[in-house]
Amino acid sequence: MEYEAVIGLEVHAQLKTKTKIFCGCPARFGDEPNTNVCPVCLGMPGALPVLNRRVVEYALKLALATNCRIARISRFARKHYFYPDLPKNFQISQYELPLAEQGWLEVETSAGTRRIGIRRIHMEEDAGKLIHDESQPLSYVDYNRTGVPLLEIVSEPDIRTPEEAAAYLKALRDIVVYLDICDGNMEEGSFRCDANISLRPAGSRELGVKTEVKNMNSFRNVQKALEFEIRRQKALLEQGKAVVQETRLWDAARGITVGMRTKEEAHDYRYFPDPNLLPVVIDDSWIEEVKKSIPELPTPKKKRFMEQYGLPAYDADILVSDRDLADYFEATVRLYGKPKTVSNWILSELLRELNRDNRPVSECPVTPENLAELLTLIDDQTISGKIAKSVFEEMYATGERASTIVEKRGLKQVTDEGLLESVVSAVLDEHPAEVEKYLKGAEKVIGFFVGQVMRKTQGKANPQIVNQLLREHLEKRRK
């Protein structure tokens, strides 16, 4: 029997606010354990939460960017469960009245464009973090993360393949990073994903029994975990066994999912409205104000880059994947009007250096002005393309301008035809056997001669002039 996967993703985006969602404690990552805490986020008796307005603003941004319907009135609820990293024994979240619903995102896969529905976006607080001691049966808890604001984005079960799931997750991450509301760091857990997956016979409209998969900290792991879970569930069904509704962890080292606990239902959490927080009321003027702050998003930007600059989809996709990179590209194009050339240099030379150093574009020592100057030096034949690459490496290492490096190192191209003629003649005299091969029709030998001239001129000879002079001198020798 053929089976079809039904996949829905629950994504948690940790917001880049300075303080937590219901108190004034810093929402910083990496501080000493249990230093960013207070009676409110520790759930002390009598401590009352106060909503951080910036959290609502960030939630509105994401709701608008994902085509959601925004609720004019939404409400916070208490979600009860008992775990050491949850000091109040409940989490403040939203349930029956979330901030936003009925949105969608379009994603690109090898099978084409798919629209994935977004069921809801709601605000909530994060829990603390448990650290398990491998040397003894002890666990420690760090409450610094308790109360850090989250947006939970719940997709519709519209996803049919692991590839679509990874594409949806990447598109969503690109949006939150563009909006500057989340840093999108999956390794640190500020952008994390749980996947619900079930199988059903192809063509059936009934949903199968689902499992939830957690602990996936990269796009690749999401895809691989879902691929494994499809194989596992399919094998169970083919053997006539039941799929158990449970939460499973992805073990990246072994490439398998492992059972963790039986899956809870909503009624298990005993939701009810939080009596200490007023409903959130959104008016039209606030929505309009937020709309004005939303930048051009990755999908329309990619389309514009392809239309305005004539870039292929591959180039545009990489350039718009990082807002700072897209801005760097456009700043360079404004100074040097050949978009494809700029794209080639960014995608090869610039990204190679940045990736090697794990450095963001915002800290790149080569400014758009300096890159534009380097490309202009190639165009006006001051330096060759090959020398330009070594100049770029020095620009990246030192932050100096291209013209300064060229002047300091004496790298200007040799374009003096008289000087180059003497070098060409010397090369041909030194290699009579290769000259004979050329005269007998071995055209490719010309490359050998060019290399020899470049070696003698330390790579400074203008290659176009060298090619022209070589052919002229070789033809004279034919006569």
From TrEMBL:
It comes from the Bacteria. Residues 327-474 form the Asn/Gln amidotransferase domain. It catalyses: L-aspartyl-tRNA(Asn) + L-glutamine + ATP + H2O = L-asparaginyl-tRNA(Asn) + L-glutamate + ADP + phosphate + 2 H(+); L-glutamyl-tRNA(Gln) + L-glutamine + ATP + H2O = L-glutaminyl-tRNA(Gln) + L-glutamate + ADP + phosphate + H(+). Its EC number is 6.3.5.-. Keywords: ATP-binding, Ligase, Nucleotide-binding, Protein biosynthesis, Transferase. InterPro entries: Asn/Gln-tRNA_amidoTrfase_suB/E, Asn/Gln-tRNA_Trfase_suB/E_cat, Asn/Gln_amidotransferase, Asn/Gln_tRNA_amidoTrase-B-like, GatB, GatB_C_1, GatB_Yqey_C_2, Gln-tRNA_amidoTrfase_suB_CS. One of its GO terms (biological process) is translation. It is an enzyme of class 6 (ligase). One of its GO terms (molecular function) is ATP binding. Allows the formation of correctly charged Asn-tRNA(Asn) or Gln-tRNA(Gln) through the transamidation of misacylated Asp-tRNA(Asn) or Glu-tRNA(Gln) in organisms which lack either or both of asparaginyl-tRNA or glutaminyl-tRNA synthetases. The reaction takes place in the presence of glutamine and ATP through an activated phospho-Asp-tRNA(Asn) or phospho-Glu-tRNA(Gln). PANTHER family: GLUTAMYL-TRNA GLN AMIDOTRANSFERASE SUBUNIT B MITOCHONDRIAL AND PROKARYOTIC PET112-RELATED, GLUTAMYL-TRNA(GLN) AMIDOTRANSFERASE SUBUNIT B, MITOCHONDRIAL. Belongs to the GatB/GatE family. GatB subfamily. Heterotrimer of A, B and C subunits. This is Aspartyl/glutamyl-tRNA(Asn/Gln) amidotransferase subunit B. It comes from Thermodesulforhabdus norvegica.
